[in-house]
């Protein structure tokens, strides 16, 4: 069973950010299921943590049990989907506050989809100029395909392309969470799940020094 954590920073009810997060989560669940694994999906609505986030940012000694539970979910996750609405051209303040409260290395090597929603497609570059640098700083293992969804694109050809991007990003996340069964493993070794996060282990047992391989050959 793989653990997939969904973090949504949507504020409204219903929330377009939560809707996109659910679409990404279900697509990822389907891709993991196709690899013969089950998926446990947990969702964190950051707006529900607003009070404790403000408390944690101003008083590090204060008790914040709901925030602590959210942080524990991250520690146990095999994959992460993080979705934020766009405010003033970037991610929301609550979204940033949540990740500011994490312990160092909390996201190290954690397979992650980044995604954002907005009213207009003019904000689409948020993925590359705001979200990707943030999660690179946190050392998450970001999948190549991020997803941006604008309200004005719904029901248009661009909206159909967004569905394709959701499928592609889900495949990439599933590939990192579960070793693909339809591909030949590379010489660097196989991808194994260790604890919560995944890591690449080199096949040292079969390593043969170059000098031994060349023994008996002339110059």
TrEMBL record:
NCBIfam families per record: LLM_duo_CE1759
Species annotation: Corynebacterium kefirresidentii
A Pfam family this chain is assigned to: FMN_red
Record domain NADPH-dependent FMN reductase-like: where: 4-152
Keywords linked to the UniProt accession: Flavoprotein, FMN, Oxidoreductase
InterPro entries from the UniProt entry: CE1759_FMN_reduct (IPR023932), Flavoprotein-like_sf (IPR029039), FMN_Rdtase-like_dom (IPR005025), NAD(P)H-dep_FMN_reductase (IPR051814)
Keyword Secreted set for record: no
GO molecular function: oxidoreductase activity
Enzyme Commission number: 1.5.1.-
Record-given protein name: FMN reductase
